[in-house]
Amino acid sequence: MRTRKLIAALAFAGASMLAVAAHADNYEIDGQHAWVTFTVKHGIYGIAHGQFDGVKGTIALDKADVSKSSVKAELDVGSIHTAFDQRDSDLKGPDFFNAAEFPTISFESTKVEKVDDKTGKVTGNLTISGVSKEVTLDVKLLNEAPAPWDATLTKAAFSATGKVSTADFPMAKAADGFGLGPEVEIVIDLEAIKK
Amino acid sequence: MVTTAALPLLLGITLALAARFAVPAASPVVTLFWAALLLFFYWDTLGPPAVPPVAASQKLIYLAFAGIVIGLPPGRVLGRATSFVAAIAFAAAFLWLGWRRLAGGSLDLQMIAALAVGLLALIGAALLIGRQPSPSPSAEEPFLAPAAVLALSFSGAIVSVLGASIVTGQLLGSIAALIGGWCLVQYLAVLRGGAAASWSKGVEFLLLYASATVLIQVALLAPKANPAALILSSLPPVVAVLMRGPLQGLLPGTRPLRPLVAGILIAAPAILAIMTAIVWAPHGAALGFS
User: Fold this and answer.
1) What is the pTM of this model?
2) In chain B, where are the structural domains located?
3) Which spans in B246-290 are helix H?
């Protein structure tokens, strides 16, 4: 009797896994084609721009039920650049991203909602300097197609935008001390390779 | 500039005047005032305490509070264990602030400097706090601990700012200005033929612990801070201890000059630290975002 129950449970688990595998497409973020950029108000003047080059992560996209999709990504704080070396090293320092103590920024989705066929909202925890805050990104699936030079390689391209506040993370002085932000606009464009 | 320098200087002067004319300098009331002022500047510079603290910068205010808790009971409560408690408190602070870096396992130049700063701060604090009061204190005696903390904080502030860690620089600057105000009033009293008021052991500990833990954090986490300057910044408490021993002979006989010369000798490594940080600072080291 116990053996039968065990076989039934295993069969159910196996079937569930197959069902998930049947619907969710898994992608790996293509770090060479990923642009995680941000803009932040610079004091009383203009807008400062920055970008993280070191991007990696995975995307599970369930086209039949988008709510079952998920995203996990990690940014290398050391890869930040703003077109000025001195500012870059300041941003890696203890007053901002504190790379010596927290070398990565991470994002892990908790909820994915469909808006229409090509757009959705991805809510998740953004962790900067050890502090996690919920952030919602507006995401658009730009395209998905096999590569013209390699039919076995399928890539999908996504675009996402969102906003965070420096005051939510251990860089509260960014706004009132350095005149940066506090609002930071995020623009992400990336390609991901289907696995 | 107002909250980093002018306000703490004024408050240090006010507290020194109160300790001269209103309440005894060694009274727990004065210790409480020091504690309150310290926490005010931590709050003003770092913001309200984060619960739970995650980043090292969020842990600093908790360490300051721990220093106050250790420093508040009368000196006789800890007795002979004072040096031991100071050493344990510094070691614990180093491990708590730096465990993420220590867990990383990399022993680079910055980490070696941080270990040296932590060790020197620990030794300096244990010796300075553990020294027994002299039965007939000399003119410079009440200035030894304040000069040590002032020199450590001031050079730490400059090294920190030049190392692109502006917030910790502001905090150390506030502590330096606060103690500077106190020293100014006490020295004027000596010039007028009076005696300077001494800090209680508790005040010595809580202020030294606060400033040294901020310096340790700079050493651990500010990659642009000059390692040699950081190590030199941590030396004033050790020199202050030596003032009672081998360096005593360097002090002049003239009473009003003794605290001044003692202060300069204690500040000598701090002055070297500032010069080192300025000379070897990367071009426009700090404020890349200005």
Assistant:
1) 0.87
2) 2-279
3) 257-279
Query: A-contacting residues of B 207-236, CB under 8 Å?
Result: 217-218, 220-224
Tokens of A184: 């930071």
**Domain A24-194 classified CATH 2.40.128.110?**
yes
Each residue's pLDDT tens digit, A12-27: 545 444 444 457 899 9
Pick from B167, B223, B287: CB nearest A173: B167
Q: Could you give the CA distance from residue B28 to residue A55 in angstroms, rounded to a whole number? A: 55
Looking at residue A12, what is its pLDDT? 52
Residue A7 has pLDDT above 70, yes or no: no
CA B232 to chain CA centroid, nearest Å: 13
B164 vs A42: CB contact, 8 Å cut-off? no
Q: What is the pLDDT of residues A59-95, one digit of tens each?
A: 999 989 999 999 999 999 999 999 888 888 888 988 8
Residue boundaries of the structural domains of chain A: 24-194
Interface test with A, best of B2, B46, B60, B289 (most A CBs within 10 A): B289
Strand ranges for A21-179 from DSSP E = 24-42, 47-52, 55-62, 70-76, 80-81, 104-114, 119-128, 131-147, 150-165
